[in-house]
Amino acid sequence: MKRAAVLLLVFFLILSGCGQAASGNDNHPNSNPSQSAPKQILVSAATSLKSPLTEIEKLYEEKNQNIDLIFNFGSSGSLQKQIEQGAPADIFLSAGKSQMDALEKQELLAEDTRVDFIGNDIVLIVSKDNQNIKSFEDLTKADLISLGTPETVPAGKYAQETLTYLKLWDSLQEKIVQAKDVKQVLTYVENGNVEAGILYGSDAKPSDKVKVVDVAPSDSHSPIVYPGAVLNTTANLTEAKDFLGSLSTPEAQAVLEKHGFRSLK
Question: What is the pTM of this model?
Fold first, then answer.
C-alpha cells in the first residue's frame, strides 16, 4: 500500500508540474513550442550503487539535458519483486545475477540489452577502534555480526558463500544479524550495534567510522558482477539503452572505481 501511495503521489506531482508548465506557456506566447520537459527515465538500482550513480547522474544530465534520471534504490531482491509486480521502471541495475536471471526467465527484459557493467569485492569491516577482529577467522570471537539477508541481498549471499567456504557459517549462526541491505550493515557497525559486518568494499570506502580488516578470497564466492538491462515495458527504449550503455564508458567507469567498485576488464 505504501509503495502504491508513493507512486500515486509521484504521478500526481508530475501531472501537476505539467499543468503548471502548460499554464506558464499560455502567459508567454513567445515561448518556443518545440521546447519540452526532459524525458524521465526511471532506474531501479541496487542500494550499493547510490553514491556513484548520484555523481554519474549529474554528468549524464549535463550532456543530455533532454533526460531526467529518476532513481529508485533498494535491495536487488526487493526491486526484482517490484518489477515482477508491475512497478514502473525503464532500467534495472542489480547487484546480483540471480535477480536479473529471474526477470530474464520471465521475459521482462528488452532483447539484447543485458550487460555486466562493474564488479565489487566482499570485505569484513569493524569499527575504527576495534582491535579484536582482524580476519574472517576472528569472527568466532565476535559477539554479533551483520550481513545482508542472503535471499534478497546479493552481498549477503556472497557473505554466506564466503563463510561457508571458510567453514565458519554453521558455527556463527547464533551471532548473525541479517540486514535489509548493505547500507544497514554499515550502519549497524558504525553505531556499535554489531562488532563486525560483511559487505561490499564500495560501501565501506566512504565511511570514516569503520575499517576494512579482511577481503574475501575471490574463489570463496560466486563472481561479483553488476548486471543492468532495459525492461521490456519501457516507453523510452532508445533513451534507456543510451544511459545503460553510458555506464560502460571510461568516464562512468572511473566514477565507479573511485567509489570502490572493481572494473571487469
Answer: 0.79
